[in-house]
Amino acid sequence: MMSCGSKKKIVSTKKTRTKEVVVNNPPREEPINTTSTSLIIDAKQAYIDTYNKLAIEEMHAYKIPASITLAQGILESRSGRSELTKRSNNHFGIKCHKSWKGGKTYHDDDKKGECFRVYKHPVYSFRDHSLFLYGRKRYMNLFRLKITDYKGWAKGLQKAGYATDKKYPKKLIKLIEDYKLYEYDAKALGKTVDEIKTKIVDSHTVKKGDTLYSISRKHKVSVDDLKEINGLADNTISVGQKLYLTKL
Known about the structure:
By secondary structure, this protein is mainly α. The chain has 2 domains: 39-94 and 120-198, Lysozyme (Orthogonal Bundle); 203-244, LysM domain (Membrane-bound Lytic Murein Transglycosylase D, Chain A, Roll). Helices cover 58% and strands 6% of the residues. It is built from 10 helices and 4 strands, in the order αααββαααααβααβ. It has a two-stranded antiparallel ribbon. A two-stranded antiparallel ribbon has the order 3-4. It starts with a helix and ends with a strand.
């Protein structure tokens, strides 16, 4: 009798093991894959939802399109998920440079162990990004563009050396258009998307002998307004330069 009981237990164990392998494994794989895909799809939109107000504030303060700030943030920080961003709140991949007096961290980039800036909070990263562009001569021409010209800004950033990737402008423009980031430019200006797309802004192309004063008299716009509209720090202009005559 003991022999028979022993055989029954062995058969029962085999059946249980078979059920665990065949029935339980497949359902575990599908939810994991679905969740992972969902996170990848939602990461960019989550970043936009979190930081669009900061981008609009910077547009008000420094005349940098909110669409550009958001697109750069998404691209440079991998939607806020890069190690540099998570550990250092550095959303724009800005390196230390000689003038930087704040916190520092080191990551491999174009070279090994490059120095990157560290911020206490993302708000400081967004502000430093604005100051970084606004305070450097090589980016000066960007501020002469229409503030809604995100394509011109995207191309100008790469041309001025912000990124070495030749596809950088296309990547920024694709993000802006896929996620309609230009809507935040319109919101910052208190206008509709249609208004910022269709509004015609009068301009004057600088010719030999032109001065800000002569242009202001010709078009009945004050010198101060010309400087403000075109982001000019002084009265210096150059032949071939396009000056806008009206505010957006």
